[in-house]
Amino acid sequence: MTVMITVEAATDGRRHSAALVAGLVLSGLVVGAALLSLAWTPYDPTAINVAGRLAAPSGAHWFGTDAYGRDVFSQVLAGAQSALAVALAAVGVGLGCGVPLGLLAAGRRGWVEEVAMRGSDIVFAFPALITAVLIAALCGPGAIDAIAAIGLFNIPVFAKVTRAAALGVWARDYTLAARLAGKGASRISLDHVLPNIAGLLLVQATIQLSLGIIADAGLSFVGLGTQAPRPSWGRMLADSQTLADLAPWLVLCPGLGVVAAVLGFNLLGEGLRAHLNPRRGA
Amino acid sequence: MAWPTILKHLIKSVVILAALAVAPLAAARDSVTLGLQLEPPGLDPTAEASAAIPAVVFPTVFEGLVHLGVGGTVAPLLATDWTVAPDGLTYTFHLRPGVRFQDGTGFDAETVKFSLERAIAPASTNPQKVALSHIDHVEVVDALTAAIHLKAPYGSLLQVLGWPAAVMVSPASAAGNVTHPVGTGPYAVAAWQRGNAVTLARNPAYWGPAPHLASVIYRFIADPAAATAALKAGDIQGFPAFPAPEAITALKADPRFTVDVAPSEGETLLALNNKRPPFDNVLVRRALSHAIDRQAVIQGAMFGYGAAIGSHYPPQNPGYVDLTGLYLHDVAKAKALLAEAGYPHGFTATLRVLPLPYAKRAAEIIAAQLAEAGVTVVLEDVEWATWISQVYGRHDYDMTIVAHVEPMDYDIYGRDDYYFGYSNPAYKALLATLDATVDETRRLAVLGDIQRTLANDAVNVFLFEYPYFGVWDTRLRDIWLPTPVQLVDLATARFDQAGPGGATGGLSGAGGIAWLLGLAAAGAVALAAAKAGPRYVAGRLAVLLLTALAASLGIFLVLQVIPGDPARVMMGMSADPAALAALRHQMGLDLPAPQRYLAWLAGLARGDFGLSYTYRVDVGTLMAERLAVTLPLTLYAVALSTGLAVVLGVTAALAAVRGRRGKLVKGNVVDALLGGIAQLLIAVPNFWAGTVLALVFAAGLHWFAAGGFPGWDAGFWPALKALTLPAVALAAPQAGILARVLRGELVDQMGQDYIRTARAKGLSLRQALLRHALPNACVPALTILGMQFSFLLAGGVIIENVFFLPGLGRLVFQAVAQRDLIVVQGVTVSLVFAVVIVTFLVDLANAAVDPRLTGGRRP
Description:
The complex is a heterodimer. Chain A has helices at residues 2-39, 72-108, 110-125, 128-139, 143-170, 173-180, 185-221, 233-240, 249-276.
């Protein structure tokens, strides 16, 4: 048994460092594209050129052009920027609200914990996309709508993860010692619990980031996310639907952008998790 | 243990569903739903200019004395024949006997006198008042003979009488025609749901042959993508004046549709305010004509459909002169002309853009083209109502893009108060000559001069002749008649008897599903109670009820704060306050919120979801219809995902275990490869997978339809086939997740002692894995599966949009847009209940499998 576990750890370990590297490369590519698009894109992503519309990929236009003759490569770069912005902000919402909630639940226990966890269950029970539609009806479609909708569902995720991990830390001897030294629950949560679960939260944040990118693409696909003329992957895909057989690159390029981003952050999270906790990676 | 049970359940549900679905429910089809882009502001074609009015009521509800046919030919309608006096000043019409208005009042010469003199009265707002004002008065010769006396000879009178603005109205009802139109036509307006639809019903007292279709519903769908989706989903069976030229190529290739493309009478113009500097300078107007590349506009705005024009005249009409060569695209010439006019550095002007796709696209392209010539264009979006009052009414604009769809409307350039602001005595003289000319050859020569004058003066930038697209369900016959004013003939339209249409088989299917789910739930509760103890079950049940209650309250509260009053949305902007209050009372919206919540909750407990605000039908019925698509799709996807996940997970686990034991060197490679595939499946968004699948298997290989749903009554296999690509797209990411969980669990289980025992008894690795490890690995997999089922039920929304499936998701989307809050409430609460119940069942199933779970606290 022991022999087998070491073998498992060794092989899985190699696999996970491969995942980590692949994740770093892909997510680095996406983040790089987003940062690059802040400073430079080959063409103005919103500039129209009818004469060069629906041009196939070439040296001049790496990913071709769309129905207005806009450069798809520039749009994909700029799309990375809006996708990351929405997903990061949504993770921020989740961290900002969910972590304190989880810490509170673990620190106080009792009815506070019960209410927080049942509340999370109720949020989980809501269909995410329909909630986003309702939020859009409430405050108008746009990036804010996407952030609010995705962020809302991030809150219970972080609350649950935080609570579970925090409970483990609370069971440790050093928290007991801190409590005997007269520290209050909130001080202990901040001084001892939070630093100990930070790694885990980072892993979860990376995974939620990848989920956020896929959700943002879905929302802008149905017209609820980032609005025109700002490029977004989901809307590019939606616009390309009726042109799919005329110009397949319009479907492929933004889609590959989404896949690269989601796969990248997923693998990164996976690799990080294995790094932090090498014994139980799978 | 667990997984064969689930599989059995799945198979059973699918089989029962299929049996229910195949049951023939189709009725003979005598109703058609057509899409229209713009909702008319009222329904009286004699009161307002909007082309959306005749699109609904002409010649369906209202009829004129004559029918204007192909190429401007005039045929009898309410007049059976007529004579023209030699001096051209008197037209005597013999009227059709026995014609009655839909309110029972008779039609006679008095009606003709009333209708036409009302149109030219000082207070008249008739959109063709100028043309009709050639009439001096109407004389009642006898009950069935009316003589029209003109002020001066007017060669186009018969054509003008065929226009929607010259229809016959009854003195008894004319004042109310805006909201309750009463005409002599084959159809009468039965209902008007503001913002959604107008329903026409067959007029049983029609004087002519009765139309084939008993009712016609016009649904207003402004968004071109939504129009395409509604057609493909079968929500509508036709779209006259289809607004999405970009979708025409794909629709032509789809055997479910016939596509007609015809030239229309719609001259699309970049209209210029000839009274306002710098457009009062002909050099500037000519410069703009040179600066614009018409072919690029046609390519970019119309995807190549539409013919370039050089003047205000349709290329297909007799007397057409090709003047497109007069102002060739030449930026240098445009700049030179601007310099000559005194604008060497160009100028800045605003372009008012209507919310129409061709106008929006053309505006962006024209702005870019004019920028090259040094003219800075500021685009400004205006609503149709704003455009009518601001641009058309007050002439407050620089430039605008609009298609002028009236036939032979070159006379508008002779009107001093028209919004172009064009005034040329020579042109007015030409119009007068044309009116006085009877000889056809000479008339055509004058028409040529008319076209040349407009082109020389470059009154507007003449862009292209708007093409008319009609998209129809292939089974819909005899609806398309290419005539100048009216292309859709509902009097002859009928459905092909060969095929029934529409998804109506939902009800019994949904009933069966509800029955099935109830049975499964009761069984699971009983099983769990037996295994895990009734106290545990009771506790879980209490949590379930509390969650459901909290969720329903949450939904209700959110919907209270959403802006937009459902009653106002239904009544339109110009709603009468008293009528609005009455409707609010009828809908129960005037009750206090807590009372409404309790009433709704009490209804839910009885299974009554309330009445839809827009459709006026039971929400439960609406949901059941849509569930007949969504639930089979979800089950199909879960089945596919489970199958794929088991194959992937088991193979990967087997390879991993073998690799570790050194028995198969390649094992780890296979394991890693399958792990990569699972990761990739997870990373692919299902809607993108759907688009790519449609591209490959529908557009490329033609194995499947690219979207739409034939309805279960079209047969089990066609329906299943339509659901296959969407189900695969939905299943792929779920399979990836499930495969990873399964592999992890299997690898764990294979390290356990009982597997060693099994192996010691002589089982092979594969046998041990399949027989012993797999059932145990199913506990966590079951939890994931339950979560996935609820996710897919609601998560199919986007996929339903990709494949144009008339499912629950599309219902919610429409309902939110129309503020049909009771539908949104009903669907959302049902989905939440479904999630809660599935979670509950999964918990119970887990407890039944592993009673230890009931003891400890839930994590």
